Amino acid sequence: MNDRIPQEAQLAQSIALSREPLPASRKTHVAGSLHPELRVPMRAISLTNGETVTVYDASGPYTDPAAQIDVRRGLPAPRAAWVEARQDTEAYEGRRIQLIDDGLRDQEQQLKLRELSAGLQRTPRRAKAGHNVTQLHYARRGIITPEMEFVAIRENQRLDWMREYEADAEREARLRGKPMGAHIPAQITPEFVREEVARGRAIIPANINHPELEPMAIGRNFLVKVNANIGNSAVTSSIEEEVEKMVWATRWGADTVMDLSTGRNIHTTRDWIIRNSAVPIGTVPIYQALEKVGGVAEDLTWALFRDTLIEQAEQGVDYFTIHAGLRLPFVPLTVKRRTGIVSRGGSILAKWCIAHHQENFLYTHFEEICEIMKAYDVSFSLGDGLRPGSLADANDEAQFAELRTLGELTKIAWKHDVQTMIEGPGHVPMHLIQANMDEQLKHCDEAPFYTLGPLTTDIAPGYDHITSGIGAAMIGWSGCAMLCYVTPKEHLGLPDRDDVKAGLMAYKIAAHAADVAKGHPGARARDDALSKARFEFRWTDQFNLGLDPETAREFHDETLPKDSAKVA
Amino acid sequence: MNDRIPQEAQLAQSIALSREPLPASRKTHVAGSLHPELRVPMRAISLTNGETVTVYDASGPYTDPAAQIDVRRGLPAPRAAWVEARQDTEAYEGRRIQLIDDGLRDQEQQLKLRELSAGLQRTPRRAKAGHNVTQLHYARRGIITPEMEFVAIRENQRLDWMREYEADAEREARLRGKPMGAHIPAQITPEFVREEVARGRAIIPANINHPELEPMAIGRNFLVKVNANIGNSAVTSSIEEEVEKMVWATRWGADTVMDLSTGRNIHTTRDWIIRNSAVPIGTVPIYQALEKVGGVAEDLTWALFRDTLIEQAEQGVDYFTIHAGLRLPFVPLTVKRRTGIVSRGGSILAKWCIAHHQENFLYTHFEEICEIMKAYDVSFSLGDGLRPGSLADANDEAQFAELRTLGELTKIAWKHDVQTMIEGPGHVPMHLIQANMDEQLKHCDEAPFYTLGPLTTDIAPGYDHITSGIGAAMIGWSGCAMLCYVTPKEHLGLPDRDDVKAGLMAYKIAAHAADVAKGHPGARARDDALSKARFEFRWTDQFNLGLDPETAREFHDETLPKDSAKVA
User: What are phi and psi for residue B362, nearest 5 degrees?
Assistant: First the structure.
């Protein structure tokens, strides 16, 4: 099934399914001041009382009926001009694609695949010799890039409509957030974004080879972000399904998407996903490297891994999960665990370390990896290969030893001006969540934290979007910058479209609840607008202001008394 | 539709649907020591490796294939003997049923309804003159009732099987709970239950006219409990649907059920629900009182309300929501709110207060209500009629003024030895949740807190089981004793069977996550048993140890690699 070569018609058709704007919504664009050419997208929701509520919009051009989209050619690339204008990059021929990149054995299959993605090929760019093209590098030199201004405008979600909802002084004082160490200004300025990036406290994942990107920031002083994992597997799904899943995920608010494909067609799937994605794309390069050695972890080499990094950097991947903190001496710490090593990347590298009885080659070659990252501005997502796979293993020495190492690596990455975030757990009972955040802040010096949940109990397979949504909301409030979603299929199977949406809903709730608790300026205005609509029985507005207007409308029926509770 | 007289055959058939035991589970019973006649039910889950995991079981006789159940006659009544043995109650003729109790206009309809529930009629009992039959009264006199021992055995869920999962000293120390002021002993003894009840820190809702009850406790030093609301409305649903919903709710773990029926057939619906329920049943008597005055709040009188209390107490309702804390002077405090008064009971009483410009008659007659409560051992659930209906209104003066009044009323109820818990919000952002718990503990002197969620954001209609599951888990950890579930239909419509289950799943997760965080002894053992099964690829055991084996099994498919992440 995975050998199947996708049909162009199918691809185009399936993606067309998710192109409708959300109800009563239209795409608006805000221009920049420093960079007037910016067109920062937002979603304007028209209410029946004449008000307009503007919200953050991760859905890309897909929800803009005016946008011409041809998935066979990829999205428009407004960022190309920004990159070009900096004059510190060069186009070059790039690595030649190999059969093994797609897990293929014969040239003919490859030709077919290549033909199908012919319109998606781009000449790669890299930093000119002696240059560093990361947003961190620019920020430290005092440069406010278009990416930074884009982020600043985007984070404000237009402040003007919110004023009505923030006018009551008593209410504002009563509901003032508890920032838990965050420092969020009333208005996000481009200079603030620059400072946060320069400090390493925020990243803007933005590979120079991903010019289709609408830049976004991940950092504790910004809106809490959500990542959705997609990706085909050796067993099921296809390129078109994954492209559609990416579009679908961003429609429901995914701020970044990780392509965790395994099996065949990995390279080509990524071509399709990146060229058609307006959100940053992350990958775990060790997955593809493992495919290239036929799934035998012991056969992995630095040379092959390095080549895979370059392959993916040239395609435009915005951040790489790199499990460089899983050191050989930490592996024995997992022996007494209830659930050993559950991270896929972690288990691959642990196998390699044990087989060779050598230090993890990602650790020993870390500075060389930094050299690649800064030539393309790929951000690190330092992976937690030893994250706990059960409550029983939470906050143990294996986990925290790795976290401390990730702190060391952060400093090395920063020495190279490479943008860096840190991955976190996993499975953690509520009372141990804060310690995760505290340790991360301490050892990683406020580099953005990016956690998977955490799941607060293990007893609800089939509902882990909820067990983990609880933990995600709590750690988001405590300062976690991005939450990797968990779908209802976690531990049980691969998520389909419905699962992707269910996971995103739980995580958009968690992220927003965290923003409100932290006191992100204006985060509560949407709650207020919806509550006002609810109190005034403006049902349509209540639906349309919600995270999922369609489901709300569908659930609404005539069983509620019309004159229900409403006094004073 | 609500006039429809249910068919016996239908009733019996629909209830038969939910009588299967959960997979690999069988009902076991533990006898008492002080009271050897006790048969405390538990669910024993058989694992494929020969282990047996025993868990708390709220599902009543329905999941016991050996139980003979005839819903037309009601469940067996083991508690009748315990009540009788105390010799402080008397059978009496009881109040005569009236047409208005079921909202009927002609005698013939009533005769049909009565005929249908003929097998469910019982002679009511009440305290003999000069006696007080509450569990609180016994507890204060040093008496360990069968109800108390039942609770003690039940809360331990058998400790023996847990030992394997608690054997690792390092793990136990690392995962030790953070009790936030709770004091939970390693083993719950009958004497501990008595002390907690005597202190007012726990209640055992157990009307002497509900002999079918399997007693349970609500208190911060016990397992966190979950309530499910059901009830027909003026618009939809029928008696048989509601009985089935009650059975269905307890199957999925509801520890108590509130019958919030409005419209017609209220009295008869309650006959069916109570006589067939092994969990405590709560009601909001003002709902029925309002039906009796044709929905005109202004026409409510103390005499009519008092008569309704007796009607319901004789039927066996275990706890009453009484909105006695909503005082006339508090109503103006809601004027500036975003969402006014959203509690149905609250809005009814506010209307009455405003119309008459008089103090709330529940407040002025509170001691008379206490007299009724102690004659039947109905527990107070002091209602929060001014709970916030939006984040904007959270923790405002209206809410907290009422809460302080509930504290005063608690002391009055305790003076009468009436068991009392306190209802709480509602809609509260995460950072304001702790203050709710703190204020409640302070003013209500550790009387059990019973909250609705709280919802941590207003922006997700259709997903409020999740927005509120987050808040419920957090407040449960902080000491909230019972969590009233919220279903996905909240704000949109009345829950159907699927919604009831979805709400319960979210809330069983929240309650369990809270138990683990508080460090309830043994709570984590089930997580460990499931994680171990997961690590050992015992799929069947993983499903069966979960909260919803059916969904987990259904979600499982062959897409997960068999040799997935597992090292060390």
Answer: -75, -30
> Which of A504, A502, A442, A503 lies closest to A478 in space, CA to CA?
A442
Q: Which of A325, A329, A479, A332 is nearest to A407 (CA)?
A: A325
How many A-B residue pairs are in contact by the CB < 8 A criterion? 345
Using the Cβ of B396 and the Cβ atoms of chain A, whether some distance falls under 8 Å is answered with yes
Residue with tokens 């890299």: A126
CA distance A83 to chain B (A): 37
CB within 8 Å of A508: residues ≥ 6 apart: A226, A252, A253, A547, B460
Test B568 with A340 for CB contact under 8 angstroms. Answer: yes
CB contact under 8 A, A391 and B175: yes
Closest CA to A385 of A471, A329, A325, A301: A325
Residue-level pLDDT at A240? 79
Q: What angle do CA A141, A142, A146 make, to 5 degrees?
A: 110
Are B494 and A548 an interchain contact pair (Cβ–Cβ within 8 Å)? no
Q: Which residue of A has its CA nearest to B166?
A: A392
Average pLDDT score, chain B: 93
Residues, chain A:
568
Q: What share of chain A is helix, strand, coil (3-state, %, to 5)?
A: 45, 10, 45
CA-nearest of B97, B99, B491 to B291 is B99
Residue by residue, DSSP assigns B425-488 as -SB--GGGHHHHHHHHHHHHTTPPEEEE--BS-SS-TT-HHHHHHHHHHHHHHHT--EEE---T
Q: Which pLDDT tens digit goes with each residue over B155-198?
A: 998 888 998 898 999 999 999 999 999 999 999 999 999 999 99
**A-chain residue closest to B532, CA distance:** A338
Q: Which of A427, A531, A555 sits opposite B493 (nearest CB)?
A: A555
Average pLDDT over residues A430-457: 98
**CB spacing of B565 vs A343 below 8 angstroms:** yes
- The C-alpha atoms of residue B31 and residue B156 are separated, in whole angstroms, by 13
Give Cα A187 to chain centroid, integer Å.
24
Q: What is the dihedral of CA A54, A199, A449, A166, to 10 degrees?
A: -30
**pLDDT above 50 (res A333):** yes
CA dihedral of B245, B247, B252, B257, whole degrees rounded to 10: 70
Cis peptide before A205 (omega within 30 of 0): no
pLDDT of residue B164: 87
Chain A residues whose beta carbon lies within 8 Å of the beta carbon of residue B555 = 461-462, 488-489, 492-493
Decide if B261 touches A, using CB distance below 8 A: no
Q: Residue A30, Cβ neighbours under 10 Å: how many?
A: 17
Mutate to test the interface with A, among B170, B458, B489, B516 (most CBs of A within 10 A): B458
CB contacts of B512 in chain A (<8 Å) are 457, 459
Between CA B136 and CA B142 the distance in angstroms is: 10
pLDDT at residue number B158 = 86
* pTM beyond cutoff 0.90: yes
- Identify whether the C-beta of residue B421 lies closer than 8 Å to the C-beta of residue B369: no
Residue A558 in this model has a pLDDT that exceeds 90: no
pLDDT value for A304: 98
Q: Which residues of B touch A460 (CB under 8 A)?
A: 505, 508-509, 546-548
User: Six-digit token pair at A327?
Assistant: 């050191």
- The total of other beta-carbon atoms located within 10 Å of residue B36's CB is 9
Phi/psi-derived region of residue A294, left when phi > 0, alpha when psi is between -120 and 50, beta in every other case: left
Q: How far is B6 from chain A (nearest CA, A)?
A: 20
Cα–Cα distance, A532 to B338 (Å, whole number): 6
For chain B, the 3-state helix, strand and coil shares in percent, each to the nearest 5, are 45, 10, 45
For residue A422, pLDDT over 80 is answered with yes
Read off the pLDDT of each residue in A203-207 and give the average, rounded to a whole number. Answer: 98
